[in-house]
Design brief:
By secondary structure, this protein is α/β, with parallel strands linked by helices. Helix content is 34%, strand content 24%. The chain contains 15 helices and 23 strands.
Length: 466
C-alpha cells in the first residue's frame, strides 16, 4: 500500500467505494487523514463500514471541513452531467481528484525521479501496459503494475529509486489527475469512444493528450501516429519542445519507430537500425499488437533497456488472458481465446491475424452487429454462432460464410475442433472472438473466456500452449 501523507491531519471525502475507492480510503487513513466515505450503492457503503471507515450520505453533511473529494473514475465528472458529489465539491470550493493524483503527489514528495510509465489510448492499453511491465521485469527492475489494468494504484508499493511503476490510465482517470507527470507517457491511438462521458471526440482526445503533454522535463512522450488525432497531438508536443517519439505500423516515419514486415525499426534522419523482430511471437500477432509492441519498445529504449533484453522480453511475453490468448494445440489446430473481443472492431483485430479461421461468435449483440467485418469473411472457413446474436449473425453471413447455429459454447468448441481437424489445413485456428457482450450466457467476458479455455483443454489430445 502507498500511504498518502499529503492529506495528513485533514478530512477527505471519498466517493465511489469499489476497488480503487476502498484502496484510497486505506491509503489516506494510513497517511494520517480522516476519511468520510460515500457511495450511491448501499452494499458498497456496508463494505466500507465493515472495513472500519466512517461512511455516510455525503449529501447530508457540511462540506466546509473537507480538504478534497477523491472521486472514483466510474463517477461522471463532466458528462452527461456532473455527479451530485462533484457539484457539492465545487460549491464548497474544494478540489476533485482521483487515486492516481494521490499517487503522483506522493511520488513527488518522496521519490520525484523514480521511473513512472503511464499508458493510455482507445485500444491496446492493457496489452501494452502488461508488455512494458514484462520488459521491465526482464531487465531486472522492481516493477509495480496497476491502475486501469486491475490493481488499484494505491494498493501497489510506494515509489522509490530503482522501482518502476507501470500504470494503465483510462480517460476517466486522466481527467482526475491534474498534476500527472510520468517520466514516460504513451498515447497509443484515439478513436471515437466514451463520448457519453466526454461530450465530443474533441474533448475525449484533449483528455487523452494530457497524459503525454505533461511528461517530466527530461521525460519522453511516445505517440502512435496512425490516426489523425494522434498525429496532431505529436505535432503540438513538438512545437511545445517535448521529447516526442512517433510510432507507426502503417508507414515509415522519418524520425521515430516503425514496423515493416515484422521488424521494429528506428529511424533518425537517413539512418535506419533494427530494434527487434516480431515474427513467430504468437502473443503479439496482428497489426494492433505490432503497434503495442512498437510503443513498448520505444518505452524500453527510453528507459535504457538493451536490444538483447528487449528482444528476449518480447519473445517471452505470455500475453493477456482473454486477449488473443493461445490456449492449446491439437495437431495443426491452434485454439485462441479472444473473449475480450466484445464488439466488431475488437473482433476485427483477431480476424485480421489469421488466414484459416473456424470462428466462434455471438452472445449479447452490440449495435451494428458484424456487418463491418465483411472484408474478413474470406478468412473464415466456418462460423459457429452462439447466444442471442446467433440468428442475426446467421442472416449477415448468409451464403458468404458456411456456418451453423451452435447456441452454446460447449457445442461450438466441439464442432469447431472436429471441423478444423478434418480440414487438414496447415494453420487452422479455432478462434473465440465473439463480437458480442457475454451477458446473455455469462456474467462477464472473463468467465466466458475461462469456460472456453476449460473446454479446449478438456479435448482429448490437446497440448496447452505454455
Amino acid at each position: 500500500m502507498i500511504p498518502i501523507t499529503s492529506f495528513a491531519g485533514k478530512t477527505v471525502a471519498v466517493f465511489g467505494l469499489g476497488g480503487s475507492g476502498l484502496a484510497s480510503c486505506h491509503a489516506l487513513k494510513a497517511g494520517g487523514a480522516e476519511v468520510v466515505a460515500g457511495d450511491d450503492n448501499a452494499d458498497n457503503i456496508a463494505r466500507a463500514v465493515q472495513a472500519g471507515f466512517l461512511a455516510a450520505d455525503l449529501r447530508n453533511l457540511s462540506w466546509a471541513n473537507f480538504a478534497a473529494l477523491v472521486l472514483a473514475p466510474g463517477v461522471p465528472l463532466t458528462h452527461p452531467a456532473p455527479h451530485w458529489s462533484v457539484l457539492k465539491a465545487r460549491e464548497a470550493g474544494i478540489e476533485v481528484i482521483g487515486d492516481i493524483e494521490l499517487f503522483c503527489r506522493e511520488r513527488r514528495r518522496h521519490a520525484p525521479n523514480s521511473p513512472f510509465v503511464a499508458i493510455t489510448g482507445t485500444n491496446g492499453k492493457s496489452t501494452t501496459t502488461a508488455l512494458i511491465a514484462h520488459l521491465m521485469r526482464t531487465a531486472g527492475y522492481d516493477t509495480q503494475m496497476g491502475g486501469n489494468i486491475g490493481t488499484a494504484i494505491l494498493s501497489l508499493e510506494p515509489s522509490r529509486m530503482g522501482r518502476v511503476h507501470v500504470v494503465e490510465m483510462s480517460s476517466y482517470q486522466i481527467d482526475l489527475t491534474p498534476s500527472l507527470d510520468p517520466s514516460v507517457g504513451i498515447l497509443l491511438n484515439v478513436s471515437e469512444d466514451h463520448i457519453d462521458r466526454h461530450g465530443t471526440i474533441e474533448h475525449y482526445s484533449e483528455v487523452k493528450e494530457r497524459l503525454v503533454a505533461d511528461v517530466q522535463a527530461q521525460g519522453t512522450a511516445v505517440v502512435g501516429v496512425d490516426d489523425g488525432w494522434c498525429r496532431d497531438v505529436a505535432d503540438r508536443l513538438d512545437r511545445a519542445g517535448k521529447n516526442v517519439v512517433r510510432v507507426s505500423v502503417r508507414n515509415p516515419v522519418p524520425d521515430g519507430i516503425y514496423v515493416e514486415r515484422g521488424t521494429i525499426l528506428r529511424a533518425s534522419g537517413a539512418a535506419r537500425s533494427e530494434i527487434a523482430q516480431l515474427g513467430g511471437i504468437g502473443s503479439l500477432r496482428g497489426l494492433h499488437n505490432a503497434q503495442n509492441a512498437a510503443c513498448a519498445a520505444a518505452c524500453a529504449l527510453a528507459m535504457g533497456i538493451s536490444l538483447d533484453v528487449l528482444q528476449n522480453g518480447l519473445r517471452s511475453f505470455p500475453g493477456l488472458a482473454h486477449r488473443m490468448e493461445q490456449v492449446g494445440r491439437l495437431g495443426n489446430v491452434l485454439f485462441v481465446n479472444d473473449s475480450k473481443g466484445t464488439n466488431a472492431d475488437a473482433a476485427a483485430h483477431a480476424l485480421s491475424s489469421f488466414a484459416d479461421i473456424f470462428w466462434i461468435a455471438g452472445g449479447k449483440p452490440k449495435q451494428g452487429g458484424i456487418t463491418s467485418l465483411a472484408e474478413y469473411f474470406p478468412r473464415i472457413r466456418k462460423a459457429y454462432l452462439i447466444g442471442e446474436a446467433a440468428q442475426e449473425f446467421s442472416s449477415t453471413l448468409g451464403d458468404r460464410v458456411p456456418h451453423e447455429i451452435s447456441q452454446t459454447l460447449d457445442v461450438a468448441v466441439e464442432h469447431a475442433a472436429r471441423d478444423a481437424q478434418a480440414s487438414r489445413l496447415a494453420d487452422a485456428v479455432v478462434l473465440l472472438s465473439p463480437a458480442c457482450a457475454s451477458f446473455d450466457q455469462y456474467r462477464n467476458f472473463e468467465i466466458r473466456g475461462t469456460k472456453f479455455r476449460d473446454l479446449v483443454t478438456a479435448l482429448p489430445g490437446v497440448k496447452p500452449v505454455v
